[in-house]
Specification:
By secondary structure, the chain is an alpha/beta fold. It has one domain: 3-Layer(aba) Sandwich (Rossmann fold). The chain contains 7 helices and 8 strands. It has helices at residues 39-44, 48-54, 79-98, 116-125, 145-148, 164-173, 192-207, and strands at 3-12, 15-24, 30-34, 58-62, 107-112, 130-136, 155-160, 181-186. The chain has an 8-stranded mixed beta sheet with strand order 1-2-4-3-5-6-7-8, sandwiched between helices. The longest helix has 20 residues, at 79-98. It is globular and about 40 Å long. The model has no long low-confidence stretch (mean pLDDT 87).
Length: 210
């Protein structure tokens, strides 16, 4: 399978973020891996990104923090700062599409753990740009009630069956969320990375394809 690889730079306040965009032939959507640090590690876990590529989805991996910023103890949960940077990235992606520098296709956000509330908040703020949302664990309600109430992007929540905190959190938050919400509880004995990559691809096929 032929996949085009592009190194991208995103100037933001006080930093320049470096990302890697992988586009398979006939890309019909791009999944942005949301992470403060170690985004590439998240995408490569269990060949997750490769599974998306096979199904026609491009991937963008980048860290929202640079250099010593990752060493601060609360940096990865500082939502306003991270949201500002991710919003700036999405704005620049849209400009690149308008300039035909990259294909004009729908976007999805994929996040895990502490990045889950960040992705929910940004998807709520950019409901015209974010067509789907996939989260691996994490506490959805930390995004803030005002953002839960306006989230329109279909959300797929993937959790291990043993992660009762994330499951209970989503069940409480769902009553405030008007959009499509799906919860998939995964038995770790099945091979969680393999199952998650399949479910994620199916979700993007449903809500981004075309």
């Amino acid at each position: 399978m032929m996949t085009e690889r592009q190194a991208l730079q995103f100037p933001v306040a006080h930093a320049t973020l470096h990302g890697e965009l992988l586009l398979p032939a006939n890309t019909h959507g791009i999944a942005v891996f949301v992470a403060a640090c170690n985004s590439t590690q998240q995408a490569e876990q269990g060949d997750f990104a490769q599974h998306l590529h096979i199904n026609g989805f491009g991937t963008l991996t980048l860290d929202l923090l640079v250099g010593n910023e990752c060493n601060f103890t609360d940096a990865e949960v500082h939502l306003p700062h991270l949201a500002e940077r991710l919003l700036a990235v999405l704005t620049q992606i849209r400009r690149m599409m308008d300039a035909e520098a990259i294909p004009e296709v729908p976007l999805a956000l994929i996040a895990a753990g502490d990045a889950t509330p960040l992705a929910v908040r940004v998807a709520a703020l950019r409901d015209l740009d974010v067509g789907a949302l996939i989260c691996h664990g994490g506490l959805v309600d930390l995004a803030g009630l005002q953002y839960l109430k306006v989230l329109r992007a279909p959300l797929l929540m993937l959790v291990a069956k043993t992660d009762q905190a994330a499951i209970a959190n989503l069940q409480r938050a769902k009553e405030f969320m008007p959009g499509v919400i799906a919860l998939e509880q995964i038995d770790t004995e099945e091979g969680i990375e393999r199952v998650e990559s399949r479910l994620a691809s199916e979700w993007l096929q449903r809500y981004l394809h075309g």
